[in-house]
Queue: 4 jobs
Job 1
Amino acid sequence: MAPKKRRRGKHIPQRTCIGCRTVSSKWELIRIVRTPDGVQIDPTRRLPGRGAYLHANRACWEAAFKRRAFARALRTTLTQADIQRLRAFMETLPAEELPREEPESEANGG
């Protein structure tokens, strides 16, 4: 007799935020893409080109600028126009704190 197959839940793609370095669902993050025309925001998450992901809060974006994570993740040199475009978009985001992980002793109730 054949063993029963267990049905798995739907696969949820995971991506790492280049600002805070936490792993989240791809759908919770904003995609930045390198195109031949420069670096731009990809609201549809479907543009061709090398991409990087960030949370939709200003703290993650500021951390990414501070760490120079955009250029490293996209494997390119950002032009002043790219930087201005990204900073203008960052100003429209809410100013939340970086997500923080709880210490293990607090997470276990002790």
Job 2
Amino acid sequence: MGLVSGIVVFLMVWWTVLFAVLPWGNRPSEEPVTGNVVSAPDKPKLLKKFLITTLVSAIIWLLIYGLMSLNVISFYDMAADMAAQDEQTQINANTNTETPK
């Protein structure tokens, strides 16, 4: 995995993990403030959640990197398979649309 691919995979994992971590520990305020939704969290602890997200994402990224280094998974093979399937689908679509003579 190259540098750019590694960064893209990390960012995708990071955002996915962030959305899983955001609801953890949220408690609505006992005295809602005028202008806020009643369910708004009192203390969202975003810095803590960002740190947890980064740690979990790093572990997942290392697992993905390890699997790619051992050739257990390969983005290149996945892309080649998808391209072959797309080409076969286009061939099938063209043969089905031809009118018989």
Job 3
Amino acid sequence: MKAGKIRFRTSFWRSRVHVMSKTNFDIFLEEQLQDPDFAERFKRAGEAWDVAIQLAALREKAGLSQNELARRLHTSQQQISRMESPAYEGHSLSMLRRVAHELKAQVKVTIEPIPTKRYGMVAEAHAKYGKR
């Protein structure tokens, strides 16, 4: 959830919406996300969670244990466990491809430009000064 938004829970049996109050953690997190360094670390942690959850979910969907997947990939169970850990940031593209291939999946990597903030810009053309 992005900072500043209020969460809603719908009670279908009553057909009305209740506003959930923010928890102390929600308030604390919003304050912490104002710090650009913390916000960047928080974003990276979310990305690591995404990779870890996807790998574990695909492995479980394939009906494989970490040991079985490791054996098929000629690696250790500890390596599979490490890759499924949200704290791990050492994924290699080649290993992700090997795992994906074994789990009948594919790896997609997206590299996007960082949006630039344009402060003090106006929609008008710059005025020309000086000699004509």
Job 4
Amino acid sequence: MILLSIIDGDAASLLLETPKMTSRSTQGNVRDFEIATEDAARLAECFNSIDDSDSWPGGFTHGNPYTAERVLDDRKKRETFRSLVAYSGDKIVGTCDIAQSMMSKDAAYVGVLKYLPEKII
């Protein structure tokens, strides 16, 4: 579990006001996840490709592979501030979800953080 502590103000307002990424290392490689079938299918492919016990205890899908529909249903149920994806070409190769911490209104929780190491440059 990773918590991001916010000194002044609440986590939601800080994360929602975060401008688009402009770092040379992320520009053109990281963006917000779009609730659309195309992004969902790409994220499902990413999740299914890390379905091994080395990447996630017991495998990430637990024998139930992700589909675009499953990703969309899951994303619509979550209350995240921000859901980012890293991509290489037309593939999503990583994801990071940030949500409100249940422990403090002044902290954020990184709920899902995954990447495909062989795809990171």
